[in-house]
Amino acid sequence: MSQINSPQTGAEPPAKPVGMDAILRIEGMEADLPPRGAGRREMPPEESHMPRSKAAGLPRHFWLAAWGLVLVVLIASFGIWGPEMDFPTTVSRTEVETDNGGTLVLEKSLREVISGVIDEAVDWLTVEISWLFDGLSSVVAYALVTIEDVLKWIPWPTVVVALAVLSFAVGRWRMVGFTLFALLFVGFMDLWENTIDTIALMVVAVVISVGVGLPLGVLAARNRVADNLMRPILDGMQTMPSFVYLLPGLLFFGLGKPAGIFATLIYAVPPVIRLTNLGIRQVSAEAVEAAHAFGTTPFQLLMKVQI
C-alpha cells in the first residue's frame, strides 16, 4: 500500500521577504527613508462628498431676510394695488382735443414702441440693404442650379452607384443596401428630379454651414467671452421651430429655394459651432505642448492637432 506523506510538522516557516529599508540598513547604506504612508494625502471628510450648490451653502440669516423681503412686498402689493395688479406697460400718454370739445387720451405701450422700432429696422433692411440680400440670393441660386444641372446630366445609374460607394465607406453593406433601396424607390416613383433638387439644396447648405460654423467654433474655443455670448444664441436657434425662420427668409430673400436654405442654416450652423468648440477644447494639453515643442505654427496647430 502506498503511504501518504504528511507534511512535516517541524519544518520552519518560510522567511518573510526583506524590505528595501532592511536591505539598505544591512548593507550599511545611509538613507533617510520616510515613514510608511507619509506620501499619502488624507482627504478631509468634506471633500469626499459631492460639491454643494451655491444656494445650499448660503447662511440661514440670508434666507430669513430674503423671505422677509418677499413677505413685505406681498403685503405692500395687496395694501396699495390689490390682488388685480397689472404691469405698468404705458410709456407715454397724450391728450388730444376733439371737435366736440372733449378730450381723447392716447396711450402708447412699451410693446407698441418696441414693435415700431422693429418694423422700422426691417423696412430699412429691406430697402437700404436689399442689394446685399439680392446678391446672396443670386449666388445661392446659381450654385443650386449648377449642382442640379450636373446631377441631372449624369445618368441615374452612375449617381446611384457613386452614392452606394460613398455609403459603403460610411456604413458598410447595410448602408449600401439602404442607399440602393431608397434611390431606386424614389426613381421608380417618378421622384428622381425632386430628389436631385433636395440633394443640391443639402450640398449648398452643408458647405455654407461649415464655412460659417467652423470659424465661429474656433473663436468660441479660444475666447471664453465669445463662447458665453454664442451659447444662448445657439440654444435659441436650435429651440425655435424651423417654420419660424421661414418668415424672415421669405422677407429678405423672397419666395424660392434661398429662403429654404436660410431656414436650414439656422439648424445646421449651431451643431458645427458646438462640435468644433468641443473638439478643440478636448485636445489634451500634452499634445498641444508637444506640437509647440516641435515648432508648429498656430495654423498648423489648429489644422493638424486640434481639428
CATH architecture of the domain at 130-306: Orthogonal Bundle
Determine the number of helices (DSSP H or I, runs of at least 4 residues): 11
Q: What is the share of helical residues? A: 55-70%
Low-confidence stretches: 1-11, 16-34, 36-51
First-last Cα distance? 79 Å
Strand fraction equals under 5%
What would you report as the Rg, rounded to the nearest angstrom? 36 Å
Family: Belongs to the binding-protein-dependent transport system permease family.
Keywords: Cell membrane, Membrane, Transmembrane, Transmembrane helix, Transport
GO molecular function: amine transmembrane transporter activity; carnitine transmembrane transporter activity
Organism: Caldilineaceae bacterium SB0661_bin_32
